[in-house]
């Protein structure tokens, strides 16, 4: 099978690039896959494909750019030219741009791929029905939210024209089937990138290290977390340090630098900036507690899966997709009220002062993470592709597109 994957890919900074890296790493180890073609937003020869494990060859095709209006044409042309046997789209709604039109146009690509007679599966990491547009910084008022929800419904219908749409959370299946009256939605869990040997679960340092990881500025903000740490220090006298790992959300450039200046008087708050893939394991291993300072969610949390794989306790709000992961996959955490600094401080403090409880959560999260390693996820996608017969539609469309592109 010559497997095509349309995705952002390291060293790209576009969302879901890390997920693609680990998916590719495990796809290439499967005997059913003879070659992987990456349709990426980065230059040929730059992609991080120097894996140590044996596996099939990888070809990188640079054919789209973030916020480009031409992506719908350039990706289609690349698919026609390279002729993959199957195509997987690694998507969320803002995959192809932070600007509305390029983002929307890119979501037509799975439908076009199917019309080109290429069996097509979309991995859809979030759905509009569960995203609070105001919290994530996409709509500033109720009218705008209604307009964007309408557009989102239309775009979801387009995405659902793929042969199959895979989602990572069980409730997404029900939401899409009931609203759009489709039967091509499947559940394939997010999976865990790497599963090291069983951790010791002991604290790494005498000082408790709290870590948060992500793209910050919209529904992920760190001011409350810094202030919660200050409350804990004053209330308990415990030595605590905070690591804020990651970058600004593309829609909030300059956010972390502003926070850094605002709290420069607070000791032991460290901003890492962008974390290279090879540095991620060390980041988790050297932390004791992983905190999720979210006011909304936009899909299955890759960070929670990573925290689990390294045997770390989590502190998180009991809302949205984080709550679903607790219910569906067995993850555990100490919960706090969203946007409530005092509640967050109480939750973190409980783990700092009760090490037995911290270890209990850490062990539960490791167990949950171990149930869906990425090799199992990759194998599940191959099973779904093999269940698809050759597409019988679109020969006329394919001829027209081939002529013009």
Q: What keyword list fits this structure?
A:
seven-stranded parallel β-sheet; six-stranded parallel β-sheet; Rossmann fold; 405 residues
Element layout with pairings:
Layout: E1 2-6, H1 17-27, E2 35-40, E3 58-62, H2 71-82, E4 86-91, H3 100-106, H4 109-115, E5 120-124, H5 142-159, E6 164-167, H6 170-180, E7 185-187, E8 208-216, H7 223-236, E9 240-248, H8 255-262, E10 269-273, H9 280-285, E11 289-291, H10 302-309, E12 313-317, H11 320-329, E13 334-336, H12 341-353, H13 355-370, H14 374-386, H15 395-404
Parallel strand pairs: 1-2, 1-4, 2-3, 4-5, 5-6, 6-7, 8-9, 8-11, 9-10, 11-12, 12-13
Helix pairs in contact: 1-14, 7-12, 10-13, 12-13
Mean pLDDT: 88
Shape: globular
CATH topology of the largest domain: Rossmann fold
Largest sheet: 7 strands, parallel
Q: Quickly count the domains.
A: 2
Per CATH, the class of the largest domain reads Alpha Beta
CATH superfamily of the largest domain: Glycogen Phosphorylase B
């Amino acid at each position: 099978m010559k497997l095509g994957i349309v995705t952002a890919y390291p060293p790209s900074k576009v969302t879901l690039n890390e997920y693609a890296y680990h998916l590719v790493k495990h796809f290439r180890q499967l005997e059913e896959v003879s070659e992987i073609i990456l349709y990426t937003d980065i230059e040929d020869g730059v992609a991080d494909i120097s894996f140590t494990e044996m596996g099939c060859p990888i070809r990188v095709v640079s054919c789209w750019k973030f916020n480009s209006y031409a992506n719908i044409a350039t990706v289609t042309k690349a698919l026609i030219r390279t002729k993959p046997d199957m195509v997987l789209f690694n998507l969320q709604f803002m995959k192809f741009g932070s600007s509305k039109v390029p983002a929307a146009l890119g979501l037509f690509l799975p439908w076009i791929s199917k019309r080109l007679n290429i069996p097509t599966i979309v991995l859809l990491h979030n759905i509009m029905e569960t995203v609070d547009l105001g919290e994530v910084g996409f709509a500033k008022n109720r009218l705008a939210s209604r307009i964007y929800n309408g557009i989102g419904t239309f775009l979801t219908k387009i995405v659902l024209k793929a042969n199959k749409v895979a989602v990572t959370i069980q409730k997404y299946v029900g939401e899409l089937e009931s609203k759009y009256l489709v039967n091509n939605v499947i559940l394939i869990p997010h999976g865990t990138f790497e599963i090291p040997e069983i951790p010791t679960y002991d604290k790494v340092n005498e000082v408790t290290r709290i870590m948060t990881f992500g793209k910050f500025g919209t529904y992920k903000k760190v001011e409350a977390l810094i202030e919660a740490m200050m409350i804990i220090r004053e209330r308990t006298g415990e030595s605590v340090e905070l690591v804020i790992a990651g970058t600004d959300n593309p829609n909030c450039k300059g956010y972390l630098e502003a926070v850094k200046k605002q709290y420069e008087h607070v000791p032991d708050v460290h901003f890492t900036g962008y974390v290279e893939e090879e540095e991620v394991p060390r980041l988790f291993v050297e932390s004791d507690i992983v905190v999720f300072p979210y006011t909304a969610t936009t899909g299955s949390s890759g960070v929670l899966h990573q925290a689990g794989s390294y045997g770390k306790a989590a502190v998180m709000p009991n809302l949205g997709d984080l709550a679903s992961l607790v219910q569906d996959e067995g993850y555990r955490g100490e919960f706090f009220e969203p946007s409530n600094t005092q509640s967050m401080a109480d939750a973190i403090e409980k783990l700092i002062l009760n090490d037995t409880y911290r270890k209990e959560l850490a062990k539960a999260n490791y167990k949950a993470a171990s149930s869906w390693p990425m090799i199992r996820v990759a194998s599940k996608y191959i099973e779904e592709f093999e269940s698809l017969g050759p597409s019988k539609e679109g020969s006329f469309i394919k001829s027209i597109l081939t002529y013009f592109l």
